[in-house]
Amino acid sequence: MSVLTFQPIYQQRVWGGRKLETIYQRKLPDSTTPYGESWEISDRPEAQSIVTTGPLKGKSLSALWSSQRKEIFGDYSSDNFPLLIKILDAQTDLSIQVHPPST
Question: What is the value of pTM for the model shown?
């Protein structure tokens, strides 16, 4: 199995900036909008990471989690992929937040 790469999901934020373009050499969807977050890995219903290359190209993280979980990710029992991985571009100070697991 080769390394999986995913299409980033950009999130507009009023506190965001445009450094994702310069630091990571990315083309953001809109040339004037501040993007505060790039979701690199997401298995949220409204924001699905999609594989960008290789034999699994076009498949969503959710589909891989459902159909090939053990082969790709190992033996986990969660209903969906348990992590949301982000890169932030904050132009102002942000608060620190901790999100404990729901029970």
Answer: 0.84
